[in-house]
Predict the structure.
Amino acid sequence: MELIAGDVGGTKCRLAWVTGESEDSQQLRFEREYASAAFATADDLVRQFIADARLPVSPEGLLLALPGPLHAQHATLTNLDWTLDAADMRATLDISSVRFVNDFQAAAAGVATLGAADVVALNPQPVEPGGVRAITGAGTGLGLAFMLADGSGRYRHYASEGGHIDFAPANDRQARLLEGLRATHGHVSWERVVSGLAMNDLYRFCCAEQNTALPDVPVDGAGLVVRAESGDPAALTALDLFIDLYGAWVGNVALLVQPRGGLYVAGGIAAHLQARMQSPRFMAAATDKGRMRSVVGRTPIFLVTNSRLGVLGAIATAFAPP
């Protein structure tokens, strides 16, 4: 089978062309990463990828991991102005099989492909064989999925839209942040404070808190890091606040599903802020759960450092038995 598997994100997309009849026999033919904003539609992205691959065969299948809720193989993406329908794409791209899955459902499937070199332990605790697993992560948005082992020990993967749960502040400063975000956005989810989309709001909030000038242009995650490295006090505070919020969110996930089989933190932001994620500050925020502190403390938590997790999961999902 000739298959294209893709991990679609609000900022970038990674596509891979693989051939084979099973996960064990697959071979990678071609892989490339693209800026999502460069394409008006998913069809345009796939056509460009096929043209760039320059292979003497045509794809027979397409599986895309998408950021957002799916209904009847139809999706309107959360942080990207695309609407996709699998039946329409089958017709317009002339590919016999087109299927969509949630992006973090694919990331969950990708966990099984990881080796020791692909993760860093943030909270080194014993992993329970067959225990519940969870994966969460901040990229452009905030994703969450969980995995349950069936009777044969094989993990099944389940998507969620947990990143859109209502944000709850843990202290007075975070309460002021919530008040400001509510005035701007109305509903304030955890994605509003733990994602690439959140970075500008966090920086502006810290500037206001410190009575310094607000930026003239939006500041993204990379820009925030540059400002922090130059000694900008508000940027340094914003990154500390982000780590506090990220840690609190991960602690919430630990309480929600008690993933004794491992809680995996993925997404591009965590990888770029690895040193901060490994600092005591992150786990201090994660375990700041009052009477439930020990529940989080017993949870094995890992940072995924492999940037190909999403596309690896998409490939694994495409070849997985029913």
